[in-house]
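Q: Predict the assembly, please.
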Amino acid sequence: QSALTQPPSASGSPGQSVTISCTGTSGDVGAFNYVSWYQQHPGKAPKLVIYEVNKRPSGVPDRFSGSKSGNTASLTVSGLQAEDEADYFCCSYANSNNLFGGGTKLTVL
Amino acid sequence: QVQLVQSGGGVVQPGRSLRLSCAASGFAFRHYIMHWVRQAPGKGLEWVAHVWNDGHNKFYADSVKGRFTIFRDNSGDTLYLQMDNLRVEDTAVYYCAKWGSIWAYDIWGQGSLVTVSS
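A: Predicted assembly structure:
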C-alpha cells in the first residue's frame, strides 16, 4: 500500500486558520475512523494532536481540529501561533499495518 | 511518569546487525500493542513493525520483512527490534511507539539514529 498523500507545505499568518489534507483510499482512510495526526518539531519525536479523526488528547489546544470526508481527512489549526510551526503527519489504520502521509511543513508567516 | 526510553543505534556497515531496545515505564506495558516507526533523514514517517501484547503476533513492512525481528519482554517491560542484513536505505531515526486504546500512537520514544554506511 502507498503512503497517504499530503501537501508538502502550508502556511498562514498568526491568528489565521490553516487546513492540511490527507488523502488515502477506500481501503484505509475511507474504511476506518482511525485517522490520527502528529506534530513534529525539528529534532523531536512526533506528538499526537488528533485521534479517531476528530478527537483531541488531553492537553492539546482546541485550536486543533480534525475531520474526514470520504477518502480524505483534514487537520485544521485555527488561531495560528508561532509554536504551531512544525511538520504534521497523518496516519491511518489499515488492517495489519498503519499508513503515514508524507508530511506537511506548516510555516507561520 | 509514562515514557519510552530507547537505547541502541549507531553506525554499522551494510550487511551487519544491530539491536534497538525500548524500555517502558508508567503504564501496563503487557496490555498494549507496540510498534517501531522510522524516519529517514529529511523524510516522512514509515511504519516498520508491530507486535501484539502477548508477543505472538508480529507484522512487518515489506521493506524489512525477513531481515528485521520485533519482539518483547513483558516481564522486563521492554520492546526490541533486531535488525539483520542492514542496507544503506535502512538509515533512519527509529522510534518505538505505544499503540493506545484510542487507535493512535499516544506515547513515543525519543528516537535512535541508525546509520548504515561503508
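The beta strands of chain A are 9-12, 18-23, 35-40, 47-50, 64-69, 72-77, 86-94, 97-100, 104-108. Chain A touches chain B at residues 3, 34, 36, 38, 45-48, 51-52, 55, 57, 89, 91, 93, 96-103 (CB under 8 Å).
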